[in-house]
Amino acid sequence: MSSRRLSAVNDFVVKFANVNGSGSASANALFAKSLLRMGVPCAPRNIFPSNIQGLPTWYEVRVSEAGWLGARGGVDFMIQMNPQTWDKDVASIEPGGYLFYDSTRALPKSKFRDDVTTLGLPLTEICNAAYKDPRQRQLFKNIVYVGALSFLLSMDAETIETLIAEQFKGKDKLIAPNVEAFRMGRERAKETFGEPIGLVVRKSDQVGDKIFIEGNSAASLGAVYGGATVCAWYPITPSTSLAEGFTRWCKKFRIDAATGEQRFAIVQAEDELASIGMVLGAAWNGARAFTSTSGPGISLMSEFLGLAYFAEIPAVLFNVQRAGPSTGMPTRTQQCDVLACAYASHGDTKHVLLFPEDPYEAFEFGAQAFDLADRLQTPVFVMLDLDIGMNERLCKPFEWDPNRKLDRGKVVTAEMLENGFEFGRYLDVDGDGIAYRTYPGTHPTKGAYFTRGSSHDRYARYTEDGAAYVDSVERLLKKHATARTLVPAPQMIDAAQPTKTGALFYGSTSPAMQEALSMLNKDGLQVDGLRARGFPFADEIKAWIERHDQIFVVEQNRDGQLRTLLTAELGIDPAKLVSMVHFDGSPITARFIHGAISKALQPANVEPRRRIAS
Amino acid sequence: MSFLPKPKLHHPNLPTNKLGYTRRDYEGTISTLCAGCGHDSISAAIVQAVFELEIEPHRIAKLSGIGCSSKTPNYFLNPAHGFNSVHGRMPSVATGANLANRELIYLGVSGDGDSASIGFGQFAHAMRRGVDMCYIVENNGVYGLTKGQFSATADRGSKSKKGQVNADEGIDLVQMALSLGATYVGRGFSGDKEQLVPLIQGALLHRGPALLDVISPCVAFNNHEGSTRSFDWVRAHNEAVNRLDVIVGRDEIVHAQEPGTVDEVTQHDGSVLRLRKLAPDYDAHDRDGAISYLAERKRAGEIVTGLLFVDPEPSDLHAALRTPAAGLNRLGDAELVPGAAALAAVNASLR
């Protein structure tokens, strides 16, 4: 037992070390949800292997009264249920922290740390005594440790029992045995340890009306609200739950109660090439269509993306990024497809990207992407990542303006053609670089055209004339400039005092960055923040960069991909942009960002423009 | 991919169909394929087929991949939207288009390189998925645009123009389509328009995945001695198992007829396929029988043509997906967007 013990109220990190497939996920989720019900913000994160059963998996819960939802780094309280990872897990506990484990089998003293409080409870023994069925012994062990934890962290038992009842609603027979297991764990912990530990969960009011949802589920709900009817996809971690989410939401909202007709078509394609092909066929034909994928899928789709760009066909792609290159780390997070998506396909191409920071924006951008794709007649990428996509996250409740209408963009109708509208498929009539299109079958004699990936003139006729080619690809640049005004504008977080130092970030880096900026502010270091939310970059981004002398571009990939995009597209002096990258597959932390920026800003640092990486 | 505009003038007494369209209204721009190319005959057959069926040309969507064959949608049905996609990927684009609007007729045109090599997977999955489309493969056994390499449908042992002998087994797309669940499978020959036109008509009217493998000799690179896709070879080895007439409504479209027993198939849309049997032992309703018959005749060196299999009660992807009868692309805000109140309920369920 250590002399110094961590003590904190509603501000610590709990981590569960489990075995994949042991049924721990629902017990761990119950723990996280209990915190929220007690009004205490928390951010859980699954850290899992590319495996179905047997390999180590972790569930980390950041408890934060202040509402910091980024990964913090470090562990205050380790719930160690997996001998395979014991040594590493024990080593990761903060000095003064706590270790809870199954003490059924005695472990040598060398397996413990002097500066960590050890809390052993014979979980296997307890469950073997209470249950006969081996499966029950395993499953209830999870609930038993939640019970023990609730005692140790001074949590409200009633809240958890209410949640158990909600969780098993419809399978009511399971409620009583689970509550019983929970109480057993709580009682045994009280008998064994006597009193709770120094980490305390106290009821609060910091959750408010916030909702708790995975980004993939939120994005797929956005697709429903965005009017998507065709989804063609191929299973790939970590995007699979997005297509599955779309299926679930469509079943809820898009099935005609009277006829059973389904106002959607979801096809699990044979591969990513077919997925994007189907999306383009459907969108060409006037339906809103999307695919969900991850980096390897983007590589496979690249040929079609060039066609969509050049032939100007709308498409929405949800890219739930994972660590690359190649197969990389399929179950680890990164922001590593920024360049691959921005310039996907051969030839000169530029695409539209949106960077949501959380499920709220995943929903918002998920819906908006379809309007943008139709308006701009080009692929639009919603750049999620595993951290946002596959973890439940606390966020603002979704909003929908009842007066909002789907924007189908420039579409020529049969009436317009009848009334003498001069249709040229690639004719820019109003100077925004966007031409009108017709849907197939619109009119018996007018408005048909031939869509092709080969060079074409303003009337969609094949041409190898250099001037006609230049005319068409320069118009695409003009269209891209229009896109700049339509993508979500950046958000700024100003430092307490005017400063020439800034930090530019995007996507899932947001919560850690916000916390880091607050930490820097407390230290008296003045750093302005800018969160980019779309590409092509809005004019405000360039103006903001020009107002600052030194900018840390904080991102989760090795090469500083957004920084490259900023220098290439905005003509920024690269020396001004300091790349600050974190790319080991774990989510970026406020501790890392704070540490790295603090170090860079120390007056003694003679070489402030070096690259900083973790 | 024409550089020359086609003159719009035509003879004032050119016959019209019931819709008031002349054949010229079903044509496309001037072909840039080689003179005598089999593919142009197929384009002409498509023009005749749709004209006779009295389908408004804009109710058809024509899609293709890349290659000589895939250029042809530009050469027929000018008032129809066309989509020249990427190599081997026509099936997925057609699938998506069909998902968006089931009210149009989908005509996919591909070649042997496009469908049997790079697009073999997409071809297979469109068939097994049951995409309601007429899928025509203009099969010449050779890569023409890149000047004469063997394609995957070239027969083993056949000789290229440069004298090279093909050592690889040829893929028979008809056999593939039969085993993958296509519900209308036929083989034609670009040199036999009487046989081909009704085969195309039946496929366009068929409400399920229809595959037509059309042997279409390449005059530039595969019309020599030693080739098994030359005009002479195909004429000499063509064994038609039946001749087809397509009857829509009350009007029979009469084509050159030959004697034989008659088998009538009524399709879902009311059209009747009248099969004049030439091989008395051939049954176009027996999928497994067709597979073994074709294999047997292939061993004997014959190219079997005709309507090889038809399921009069086909199903398609939309039936499995339970989509509405009207195209998904017609749905508006009211049918698609659940609205603010529903979202408030979603929010409440996430707390």
TrEMBL record, chain A:
Keywords on record: Oxidoreductase
GO biological process, one term: response to oxidative stress
Oxidoreductase in keyword set: yes
Domain of life assignment: Bacteria
Pfam hit, one: POR
GO molecular function: oxidoreductase activity, acting on the aldehyde or oxo group of donors
Leader sequence segment: none
Protein name: Ferredoxin oxidoreductase
Annotated source species: Roseiterribacter gracilis
UniProtKB/TrEMBL annotation, chain B:
Keyword Calcium annotated: no
Keyword Oxidoreductase: yes
Residues covered by the Thiamine pyrophosphate enzyme TPP-binding domain: 66-214
Superkingdom of the source species: Bacteria
GO molecular function: oxidoreductase activity, acting on the aldehyde or oxo group of donors, iron-sulfur protein as acceptor; thiamine pyrophosphate binding
Protein's GO biological process: cellular respiration; small molecule metabolic process
Keywords: Oxidoreductase
Pfam entry (one): TPP_enzyme_C
Classification via PANTHER family: 2-OXOGLUTARATE OXIDOREDUCTASE SUBUNIT KORB-RELATED, BLR6744 PROTEIN
Name recorded for this polypeptide: 2-oxoglutarate ferredoxin oxidoreductase subunit beta
Species of the source: Roseiterribacter gracilis
Classification lineage: Bacteria, Pseudomonadati, Pseudomonadota, Alphaproteobacteria, Rhodospirillales
